[in-house]
Specification:
By secondary structure, the chain is mainly β. Helices cover 10% and strands 40% of the residues. Strands 1-2-22-21-20 form a 5-stranded antiparallel beta sheet, with no helix packed on it. It is globular. The N and C termini lie far apart (58 Å).
Length: 315
């Protein structure tokens, strides 16, 4: 028995060493048209699960951990990957925070966190928490304070797991995209007239799937076969024309024409398919505040922060 214990300890130590070595990769500077901006390597940020570009503090991305990992929101310097501020929000429980987004409402610059994960499909309602950014003129580090919490539930008592949410700057509504290997449902959530009201989400449409994929390697094809079109993050460009949806293998871009005031028709058109850079498990994505770049990163630490220029074209 002692020999078995020693053997187990030896192999556990060996595995731990190999795992640590594997967790320190040299991320390529370019990958599938994406450029490496920096590397995120912080013990408090183990599972970056959403991105929102700061309007008040240029060059900063707000991010957070997945569910159950504490109610903290981190301000990340895009150029260096450093955490420049940590906002602790103990009064806002992280049941399953899954996405973040930049919001402008009533001339206020906000950051929203979507508490929408529900792996076991047990939740009666979900939430989108809005926080106001400190102004750039402040001498203090970037910080957030609660502005409003919007609670919503799905129609007919249905329950869905979701990891993707976005704010539509044209309508002022929020979008939530369900997570499923075979189908992504697009829901719309409007702000309630009274803060205590639980809003019913409105089903817009299932998202159209790609009609074709760019040529990729065998590993990407295998991942696509396993995870399908599972949506892990989303964002809408600042001008409201593009909806970017992240999956484990691609970034899907849906384009809305200038005469469309919602996403019903645009979401039913086949998207532009952009291959992802080499990331472990793509979970966070957002547009820059000017809409001229997209940022993406992975769960796990360390993880690369990649950027690609917009407009995008099919490879």
């Amino acid at each position: 028995m002692r020999y078995l214990c020693y053997s187990f300890s030896f192999f556990a130590c060996l595995w731990s060493t190999l795992a640590q070595q594997a967790s320190l990769p040299a991320f390529p500077k370019t990958s599938n048209g994406w450029e490496l901006a920096s590397t995120l390597n912080h013990a408090p940020l183990k599972e970056a699960s959403g991105f929102a570009a700061s309007i008040e503090h240029p060059g900063i991305l707000w991010t957070h951990n997945d569910g159950g990992a504490g109610s903290n929101i981190f301000a990340i310097d895009i150029a260096t990957g450093a955490i420049v501020a940590t906002c602790k929000l103990p009064d806002i429980p992280n049941l399953d925070w899954e996405d973040a987004m930049t919001v402008t409402l009533e001339s206020k610059h906000l950051v929203a966190i979507a508490d929408i994960g529900d792996n076991e499909k047990r939740r009666h309602d979900c939430a989108i928490h809005l926080f106001q950014e400190t102004p750039s003129s402040s001498a203090e580090p970037p910080s957030l304070r609660l502005y409003q919490s919007i609670r919503f539930r799905y129609p007919d008592g249905n329950r869905y797991d979701a990891e993707s949410a976005a704010f539509d700057p044209l309508s002022g509504d929020f979008l939530v995209l369900t997570k499923s290997k075979t189908e992504t449902l697009l829901f719309e959530i409007s702000r309630p007239a009274k803060a205590e009201t639980v809003v019913e989400a409105k089903l817009i449409t299932p998202l159209a799937k790609p009609t074709a994929y760019p040529k990729t390697d065998a590993l990407v094809s295998l991942k696509r076969g396993i995870f399908g079109v599972s949506a892990t993050a989303a964002d809408i460009s600042p001008d409201g024309s593009l909806l970017a949806v992240l999956t484990y293998t691609e970034c899907l871009i849906y384009k809305r024409s200038s005469d469309e005031n919602n996403w019903h028709a645009a979401a039913q058109r086949a998207p532009l398919v952009i291959p992802l850079p080499g990331v472990y498990q793509a979970e966070a994505l957002c547009f820059s505040t000017k809409g001229d770049e997209l940022y993406v990163t992975s769960e796990n630490s360390p993880s690369p922060l990649y950027t690609i220029a917009v407009p995008l074209t099919q490879p």
